[in-house]
Amino acid sequence: MNAAAETELVEELLDGKHRALARVISKVENREPGYRDIVSRLHDHTGHADVIGVTGSPGAGKSTLVDKLAKQYRDRGETVGVIAVDPSSPYTGGAVLGDRIRMASNVGDMDVFFRSMSARGTLGGLSTATADAVKALDAFGKDRIIVETVGAGQNEVDIVRTADTVVVLVQPGSGDDVQMLKAGILEIGDLFVVNKADMDGASRTVADLEEMLHMERDPTAKLNTGSFEKPDHPDHDEIDADGGDADESDDEEHWEPMVLETVAKSGEGVDELIATLDDHSAWMDETGRREAKARQRYAAEIRQLLRADAADLIDEELDRRGGIEAMAERVQARETDPYTVADEVLGPIEDCVRQQRE
Asked: In the record, which residues are listed under signal peptide (predicted)?
């Protein structure tokens, strides 16, 4: 696609044409030539949408709940974009769940834009593709953007980091799921929802979650600390893009993660969830946390892009020198060593960077 065609596509998207929006997201997902220029042009028009990430284990009812959330927002007169990140088919590379009807309550509503994105076997890069798709929806003018992921592993954690508010769904009686939350997703959740709350074991799951959140906020809860005061614990929203803790003043207000109950199929509890999402959105604006999160996201995005681009340059240089296997054989034959190979491969790149500095 030439520059004129890219400009026309961007203008059509900004004019509210859904076909242009769909084309841009397809280019982003497939990493087609020119997609970076398109996303760059859209950047000035972003920063207005409220982005909600919904994650949790398969079977927790995420799609049904997202459907109900979208309908509630539409009833309030807001426009909605939904990105559902599905696992890849090992045969076609397409989204396994993409063909089934996911938004039954919103079929035919042009102000609800639904898009299923496939991992295509590269979950690491999908977080960047998802972030770019969110930018397209934001520039298009969507008021609320919901990013739904299948699963709750590290890859999904990376994806939902694109969101302002993260909702983690857990189904009743899923003791393994609750324990799994300790593996990393507990710290990024702003709201925890026990869906299918009409099932047996819901109250126990709620209690388990509340206990885990208490332990997350108070690491000394299980210790006999006597008169010792509990140490300050950084707010989970202030964990930076590389996993470190950002500075926080002692008197800064915390957002206390909540545990809610819903029955998405009937819509029970969705009103309270919407109200709590509104509360979190308002809190982020009042405290400046939305801007802080945005800076963290941009920093992480820049790092990821730099690493990916540098890796591509390194692969090109490796191919020019005969490929990684040939170098490994030379190392195995004791003709050279890994450090020397690394220096040789990076040398031309390093020289170019230093010349640019001068």
From this structure: none
Number of other residues whose CB lies within 10 A of the CB of residue 314: 15
State which H helix or E strand residue 82 sits in. strand 80-86
For the CA atoms of 37, 40, 41, 45, the dihedral, rounded to the nearest 10 degrees, stands at: 160
**Confidence category of residue 87, pLDDT binned at 50, 70, 90:** low
**Torsion on CA atoms 234, 235, 241, 245, rounded to nearest 10:** -10
C-beta of residue 95 within 8 angstroms of C-beta of residue 117: yes
Q: Which alpha helices (DSSP H) does 50-161 contain, by range?
A: 62-75, 123-140, 154-160
120-144: per-residue pLDDT in tens? 545 455 678 899 999 999 999 999 9
How far, in Å, are 147, 252, 256, 258 from residue 234 at the CA level?
26, 10, 12, 17
CATH numeric code, 48-217+255-286: 3.40.50.300
Contact 321, 327 (CB under 8 A): yes
d(CA 346, CA 122): 25
Strand order through the sheet with 165-170: 112-118, 80-86, 144-149, 50-56, 165-170, 191-194, 258-261
Q: Which of 116-130, 154-168, 270-284, 291-305 has the highest mean pLDDT?
A: 270-284
| pLDDT tens-digit map of 302-353 | 998 999 899 999 999 999 999 999 999 999 999 999 999 999 999 988 898 8
Q: Residue 50 — φ and ψ, nearest 5°?
A: -95, 120
- Pair of tokens at residue 63: 């799609």
Domain boundaries, the chain: 1-45, 48-217+255-286, 308-356
Of 273, 176, 185, 282, the closest CA to residue 236 belongs to: 185
**CA 110, CA 117: separation in Å to the nearest integer?**
19
Contact yes or no for 341/327 (Cβ under 8 A): yes
CA atoms within 13 A on the CB side of 15: 9
Instruction: Quote the longest CA-to-CA distance of the chain.
Output: 71
